[in-house]
Amino acid sequence: MEISLDTLIVEGKEIKDSIKYVPPVEGTWRNFHVYAIKDNPKYEVWKNKTIRFLGCNFKEDRCISDFENAVKIFEKSRFSPSDFDKLIGILESCKIIPKVSQKSSKNMQEAHDTAAFSITLNQNQHQNQDQSTVLVLQVFIDSIKDELTGKQYKELTDIVQKERDINKAKPKIIEKIKNFGIDTASNIIANIITNPTVLSKFM
Fold this sequence. Notes:
The protein is 75% helix and 3% strand. The radius of gyration is 34 Å and the shape is elongated.
C-alpha cells in the first residue's frame, strides 16, 4: 500500500479511536487519567513509519521535530486522546501547506542564528561585567586592609554589620575613617586609584 499523508492521517485517526480510558482499580483513587491503546504494536509501527515519511518528504522542516516532541508528550501523558490530536494536527498542517519556501527557511535559519549570537553575546557581556565588578570590589577591600590595622578594619565591619540602613551607616563610616587620620584615608584612596585594574579605567 502506498504511504501518503492521507493514509497516515486515516490510520492515525483509527488508532485514536481505539484509545480507551482505564478506570482505577476498585477501592483505589488517583488524581490523573490513564488511557490504553487497543493495538500498541500498530501504534508503534505507525509512529515510526510517520517519522520516516516526514524525514524523507519534509527534510529540514520543523514538522519532524514537532511530531517527535508531540509523540513524547502523548506517551508521557499516558496516551491522552487530546494529546494524540496534536499528532494528527501536525500531519494535517503538512497536507495543507506541504512545502516551506527556501527563502522562508533561510530567513528562519538566519533569525535563529542571529538570536543565538545575541544570547551568547549578552551572556558573555554579563559574565565580563560580573567578573569586572568582583575584581574592582576586591581591589577596594584589599586597599582598605593594607592601610588599616586589624582592630580598625574590625571597627568598620562592625558598623556595616550592625547598621543595615546605608544612609545611617555612611556618616558613621566617614567619621570612623576621619578618626583614623587624614593620612590613612588618603593612602586608601591612592592605593585604589593606582591599582592597575582601576588605573586602566582612567586611560
